[in-house]
Known about the structure:
Layout: H1 38-52, H2 60-66, H3 71-83, E1 87-89, E2 96-98, H4 100-108, H5 115-130, E3 133-140, E4 143-150, E5 166-168, H6 173-180, H7 184-194, H8 206-219, E6 222-225, E7 232-239, E8 248-255, H9 261-287
Antiparallel strand pairs: 1-2, 3-4, 3-8, 4-5, 6-7, 7-8
Helix pairs in contact: 1-3, 2-3, 5-9
Domain HTH iclR-type: 37-100
Domain IclR-ED: 101-284
Protein name: IclR family transcriptional regulator
Amino acid sequence: xxxxxxxxxxxxxxxxxxxxxxxxPETPAGAAPPLGTQSIHRAVTVLREVAAHGMKGxxxxxxxxxxxxxxxxxxxxxxxxVAQGMLMQNRETRHYHLGHVVYELGLAASPHFSLRELCQxxxxxxxxKSGDSVFLMVRSGLDAVCIDLIEGGYPIQTRTLxxxxxxxxxxxxxxxxxxxxxxxxxxxxxMATNAGRLASFGNSTQSRLEHAMAISAEAGYAINEExxxxxxxxxxxxxxxxxxxxxxAISIAAIESRLSGERRIEMAKLLQKEVxxxxxxxxxxSLRWE
Length: 290
């Protein structure tokens, strides 16, 4: 999906980064990366930001602005990533995209069990019973990444998310479910860090996110009321692991008229039932690896 960023007034000049580009979840709030890791930290953050914009990609100036980096610093990092095949540039648009090496590394990644494969029967059941689009999201630092998608009989004509697509935590129902599941201090840090990125994702704003969190807390599941794309709503629920914070979530998205009122409540009950059954299945699987 193409997104627009409209400026109505000159932006205040943001301070340039020293060692404090957006921090990964394991870095305490307010702390800089450990000595000697700043370059690695920045390079990974650049890759994540480019990945978050999918097929559209980002220009060098976009990367520098998004991460509050001096342009020469951003250029040096991007140049190094291009040289290693981690990024590539479209010569016509001048936009940077993920390179082939990222894809190759992804293929080589081999977790003990495939979350996507284990979740597929649940996604399939939800798509068949609801008739709508069902997404599997996992957390990746400050973002949520779509790792699977199954369409029901009433697919969304204009979809904003594909497999491999990234969004800041809180943007979209599955991503919002993951944000809500975080401990309060970490949730506040993620929201503060991602605040400047929301405008690049459809209708997302800080006020809409805060409103979505409030109504979601009351409902007991994540609710997206056209917060990303006009006419499209969604609900989401985090998959709770046996220990620790949820790292994955499932969401159902549909045109607004199919996911409001009594039907939304009905679909939420269906989602809760299927996700709770999946949690038991994943718990059994995880015990095999202990």
